TrEMBL record:
Record has Flavoprotein as a keyword: no
Protein name, per record: Glutathione peroxidase
A single cellular component GO annotation: extracellular region
The organism's place on the tree of life at top rank: Eukaryota
Primary residence: secreted
Length: 274
């Protein structure tokens, strides 16, 4: 009896080492009792039309917010603020390079097995340091093309941009209300009150641009990752979710070597951030 208990303790310890206890940069989403999934929701697409998120049935989806971009006339002022920010101790980075990484990831899996099975869904947002002031779709796409990240950047065909959205505060999108009530904010999140433009502030609010919610092919949110976690850091997890068509519960996810290893690697890579 004693030995069996010790073995169990060792197993649990091992699980803790492999992610659960070290979950600073990500959180496991809660299993919902009402069975509501992301696919039950709608949002506005880039042209202002209704987008049924059930379109992503069968697709592993990463929901990501915030697409920094400057209006021409605001660029110089913005650059000054950026320089000022760099002078201060940087809590937040701009993360704009992640646009390119999302494209690169989607292109790296452009094989018949994975193509169209993994999608990034982007919600442009102007609530953090007013990074996304685009007035309309043309401005938004031009901003991506010419300014940030620039160099004729065009989102990959499996990177779908939605309409500009509030992710926090009184007018937040129902998609984000749903995601935030299902997935807690990872503990290493840092809010910068001088750069956060919404109220009221709620406990699980999105802390910054480029937070990532990983949704399985059935529409169930599984993980929430902080902004610094890069698309390629979660690639093995995404592939695993494509390869395993069943409804994986938390225990099954934790028990999977590939996933625990990815989570452990993420904690290790970003441990200087908390
Ligand atoms: C969500 O959508 C599914 C499939 O259409 C439906 O069966 C279910 O009743 C919906 N659940 C909620 C909470 O809306
Ligand atoms: C969002 O939808 C509206 C229509 O409701 C449209 O005018 C606007 O251009 C769309 N795009 C953005 C980025 O706001
Ligand atoms: C993905 O592959 C298809 C078919 O091979 C090709 O037509 C398409 O251009 C590729 N897309 C990218 C972004 O490389
Ligand atoms: C988008 O906004 C820009 C600048 O505010 C304006 O010049 C342009 O006409 C607008 N385009 C549309 C389609 O509304
Ligand atoms: C929320 O939306 C309402 C209706 O569009 C608007 O009057 C109000 O100013 C908005 N509040 C904030 C804080 O954006």
């Amino acid at each position: 009896m004693y030995h069996r208990g010790a073995a169990l303790a060792a197993t649990l310890n091992c699980l803790v080492v492999l992610g659960v206890g070290a979950a600073n940069m990500y959180s496991f989403c809660d299993e919902r009792t009402d069975g509501k999934t992301l696919h039950n929701l709608t949002t506005k697409d880039l042209d202002g039309g209704i987008k049924q998120l059930s379109d992503y049935d069968g697709v592993v989806t990463v929901v990501v917010n915030g697409f920094p971009r400057e209006r021409e006339r605001e660029r110089e002022r913005e650059r000054e603020r950026e320089r000022e920010r760099e002078r201060l101790v940087l809590i937040h980075k701009w993360f704009t390079y992640q646009y390119k990484q999302m494209n690169a990831l989607l292109q790296s899996i452009n094989t018949t097995h994975y193509v169209g099975k993994i999608t990034f869904v982007g919600f442009p947002c102007n609530q953090f340091a007013h990074q996304e002031p685009a007035a309309n779709t043309t401005e938004l796409l031009n901003g991506l093309y010419y300014v940030r990240p620039g160099n004729n950047y065009t989102p990959d065909q499996n990177f779908h941009l939605m309409n500009k959205t509030n992710v926090n505060g009184v007018n937040e999108s129902s998609v984000y209300t749903y995601l935030k009530e299902t997935c807690r904010l990872p503990t290493a999140a840092k809010f910068d009150p001088t750069e956060s433009f919404w109220e009221p502030i709620r406990p699980f609010d999105v802390a910054w641009n480029f937070e990532k919610f990983v949704i399985d092919r059935h529409g169930r949110p599984l993980f929430r990752f902080l902004s610094s976690v890069e698309p390629f850091d979660i690639l093995r997890i995404l592939k695993h979710l494509v390869d395993n068509t069943g409804k994986l519960d938390k225990a099954a996810l934790m028990g999977n070597q590939e996933i625990s290893r990815s989570l452990l690697d993420i904690e290790e890579k970003y441990k200087s951030e908390y």
